[in-house]
Amino acid sequence: MSDGTSSGTPLTRFAERFQQLFHRDGRPTRLHPAAVWSEASSTALQALTPAWRAVRDTWLKYAWPVLSVVSILGWSVLAAAILLWTTGQAFGWQEATAASIAAFAMFVIAVAFILGRSSYGVVLDLARTRVAVGDSAVGSIAVSNTSARPLLPAALELPVGSTTAVFHLPRMKPGQVHEDLFTIPTARRAVIVVGPVRSVRADPLHLLRRQVLWTEPEDLFVHPRTVALAGSAAGFIRDLEGMPTTELSSADVSFHALRDYVPGDDRRHIHWKTTARTNKLMVRQFEETRRAHLAISLSISTDEYASETEFEMAISVAASIGRQAIREQRELDVLTQKGPLRCETGRNMLDDMTRIVGTPMRRTAVDLARTLADTVPNASVVFFVVGSNVTATQLRSAAASVPPGVRSLAVRVEAGAAPTRANIADLTVLTLGDLADLAIVLRKAAA
Predict the structure, then answer these.
(1) pTM for this entry
(2) Are 329 and 310 in contact (CB under 8 A)?
(3) DSSP states of 339-382 as a string?
(4) Inter-CA distances, 271 with 174, 252, 267, 278, Å
(5) What letter does residue 232 receive in the DSSP assignment?
(6) pLDDT per residue as tens digits for the range 63-115
(7) Cα–Cα distances in angstroms (integers) from residue 107 to residues 83, 99, 148, 210, in the given order
(8) What pairing do the DSSP bridges indicate for beta strands 209-213 and 254-260?
(9) Phi, psi of 341 (to 5 degrees)
(10) For residue 361, how far is the Cα from the chain centroid?
(11) I need a surface site. Which of 182, 226, 250, 263 has the fewest CB within 10 A?
(12) Max intra-chain CA distance, the chain
């Protein structure tokens, strides 16, 4: 008999096969069952993906349009009809069988209500797609009969945000146009999706509901309320001739001193009166200037605000200051905990501020101030817009992150508070209780 450990025995072959499952360092090879299973699963998934897509596309194209016509109530009635029919046949209950027949008959009758085809020309017109909180947002729906036959009375639905407006159409002759006006409430800052306009056919019991979309949805931006700051910013952002720095230049708009002429200097800067008096060429020397670069740090952590009113007021403050800066063609950066906002135009900035959603966050106004200092290192004026829950210690920490030479101001919103000004080291703290007082507190900052 051969030895159990000799070459060629089942035990040897098993040992050799087992060694093939692992590398020398103990890692499993591709022959390991787990690796084989993973590779097989990946291959099967890749093979099934086209088939799954084909099934999904077929479902969405053919099955879903038909099944979506049945309402929740319709599915409930249909399920009850099947249950009653099964029970009646199983136990011989004629009442259950009669009830199921009646339910099926209701479905057949409901089908007659949703059959047919309407031919409308629908135009949804929003007078303005961007309004401020409190402004009127007016729109109109113009419906025309584009078919060659009269159309029976029908209903059109217009989704407006989370609500739906219903417009009733009269009997319309061929070519007849029916127009309805509507107003959208703008009491809150929001992006409201208006549309699409859809016509609805349904039976009286709403077992079946068939709808056809006639327009595309449109976005209505309800911008935060802002106040005009005409001239208010001039007190602390003086850049008519630029803000002088300590760096000297041979050409700028801020005159500094005279110096001896050096070959290569621009002869247009020679000061001829001094040259005639000293009998040697003298040129003007200038201080380099920079235009005011405004940076706004807007905290959107709701933990730092006492109420939603304060939070909305803070957004309005930042929007008002930013809008004035853009009007005066200043450089502007607005930063929140969720990243920078677009500031190329006033519309872009207000659109992004409309999309802001406040949430409790671990990143505080202090963290945002540090991020702002790194993101906008060339800022000349920095605004911190915060809520009433931000303490003086936190404001001091936020101001410490601002580079020397940069003017920093904090606007602390507190609903109902009197407009005041205070100083924390080099930081000017402005308390604001009402948006209408923003121009007042900014003038106090310039005093």
Answers:
(1) 0.69
(2) no
(3) EEPP-SSHHHHHHHHHT---B--SS-HHHHHHHHHHH-TT-SEE
(4) 84, 15, 9, 11
(5) G
(6) 776 777 888 888 898 899 999 999 988 888 888 999 999 999 998 898 888 88
(7) 15, 13, 31, 14
(8) unpaired
(9) -100, 155
(10) 18
(11) 263
(12) 128
